[in-house]
Amino acid sequence: MAKGVWIIAEQRDGVLRKISYELASTARKLADQLGEEVSAVVLGAGIANLAPGLAKYGVDKVYVADHALLEPYTTDAHGEVLAKLVREKEPAILLLGASSQGKDLSSRLAGKLATGLATDCTDVRIADGKMVALRPMYAGKCFAEVVSAANPQMASLRPNVFPAVEKAGAGEVISVAVALDPSQLKTKVLEVQKDATGKVDLTEATIIVSGGRGMGGPDGYAALEELAAILNATVGASRAAVDSGWRPQTDQVGQTGKVVSPNLYIACGISGAIQHLAGMSSSKYIVAINKDSEAPIFSKADYGIVEDLFKVVPELIKECKILLS
Amino acid sequence: MNIIACIKQVPDTEAQIRVKADGSGIDETGIKWVMNAYDEYGVEEALRLKEKCGGEVTVVSLGPARAMETLRTALAMGADKGIHISDPALEGADAFVTASALAAAIKQVPYDIIFCGQRAIDDDAGQVGSILAELLSIPQITMVTKLEVAGASAKAIRPIEGAQLLIESSLPCLITAQKGLNEPRYASLPGIMKAKKKPVDVKDAAVLGVALDKKLQVLRYVPPPARAAGKIIAGDDPVAKAAALAKLLREEAKVI
């Protein structure tokens, strides 16, 4: 009889990533409704010390899989260890983050476990003892409520959408015996090329300042970079700006770019095409600055300024400098 | 080299998506159908690999009768043959059933490398590639933006948050294509003409022996959640508006 709500925590370089806390809190909420326990699995090498961090977010048990072959992440190593553990312990629900790693792992694991996986969910709830997940489709033009027909019921959660709420959990540490052979691992990470800028990735940014066609060229982004620096934000771009060569592909927010869910998204000179909205509609607050009052973005923005962005942004920089000093 | 590219026919991204009143699905009237953009990168990479190493490209698609058009497009781009898995029983198939059907078809042909798009822009699920790789017991590298195949291994660049990974995999393996991998070619007129004569095998679920039970069930489709109406900031000039915005973001929204 499948029981318990599990999460696969994510760590990098020995530090738990923020999504892990969002997963723990969501699992805690579901488990409380079911009257069950929350367990977390953390995999890597030399990561046993990460358990207390998860306990602070309501985790009852932390399964620690500590082995040299689990660092860095590979689909084969993590997939193999997790499939074995899950088959043994039979959780009812299994949550992962819809991060780069989570997307790769969750789908492979769903294949191994022959179970239903709801990806990139923006909400999960319990109905009739089962997890019902809400997930976007067609670039967010419609959503689907889905449920898994098998256990564990799997879902990957969109980062920065679910709150991380501190709640003391037992955090009992259970060591997982890892039996991995190098010959089982068919892929190998040869190199990790860290992004030179060292800035926070768009998909994890709390604040994003984004520029579109209205920027008129690459030079205008200097002002956005300045505003971003003051707000501790990351700079994004619309497809128009990227296709014009003003900004790199990695800066693109939208249906064929990145899906972001910051607390604040400031859209400068962005008209708000459906494909762009697909990438940022999960933002908690949206600001639009555009001189075209008819721009569709204004119907989605919480705060709109109909004005030439080149006149507003410098003033906003001044105001923020004062406010945040 | 035996190269496979999986493709899916999906609504054009400009399509207006209307949820049926009873929430049972979307209204397909008037939709323009195209090859999933991410699959185009897969087909293009497959063709480049064939041009470099020699061999054959087979494109595989699970879809209703209209999906044949998308297979012909891939053949017009330069693929050599196609497999069309078409069966009313497979309509509304979830990722697991879809991957199972693809696996059953692919197991019947030789392959060294398989390309899939990183996700389909209709369901946006991004699962079929990985599940397919699992069912075929081959390794995967997902979200690939650069690929090099030499000898018995493949090397790929896979972007993650804040970094890019260089990953090596043994062959055969499955690659899911991400934007930036390449610029797909357009089908030429001679290509389109040649495509009409290229062979496409049509298979159904029974022939493939695919189990039809879905692992993920859709309870209902709903329109996107509505956002509360926002406000246009009033003010005499940009200075005043900027000041008002900063104050709202600080005191009302509390995000800065």
Protein model, in words:
The complex is a heterodimer of chains A (325) and B (256). Chain A is α/β, with parallel strands linked by helices and 325 residues long. Chain A folds into 2 domains: 5-184, Rossmann fold (3-Layer(aba) Sandwich), CATH 3.40.50; 202-323, Rossmann fold. Helices cover 27% and strands 28% of the residues of chain A. In chain A, helix 3 (75-89) packs across helix 4 (100-113) and helix 5 packs parallel to helix 8. The longest helix of chain A is centred in the N-terminal third of the chain and has 17 residues, at 18-34. The termini of chain A are far apart. The model of chain A has no long low-confidence stretch (mean pLDDT 96). Chain B is of the alpha/beta class. Chain B has 2 domains: 2-208, HUPs (Rossmann fold), CATH 3.40.50; 231-256, no CATH class. Helix content of chain B is 29%, strand content 29%. Chain B contains 7 helices and 14 strands. Chain B has helices spanning 37-53, 67-77, 95-106, 128-135, 189-195, 205-208, 238-252; strands spanning 2-7, 9-11, 33-35, 56-62, 81-85, 113-117, 140-144, 146-150, 153-160, 163-170, 173-177, 200-203, 216-222, 231-232. In chain B, strands 7-11-6-1-4-5-12 form a 7-stranded parallel sheet, with helices on both faces. A 3-stranded antiparallel sheet of chain B has the order 8-9-10, with no helix packed on it. In chain B, strand 4 (56-62), helix 2 and strand 5 form a beta-alpha-beta unit. The longest helix of chain B is centred in the N-terminal third of the chain and has 17 residues, at 37-53. The interface between A and B is large, with 87 and 83 residues.
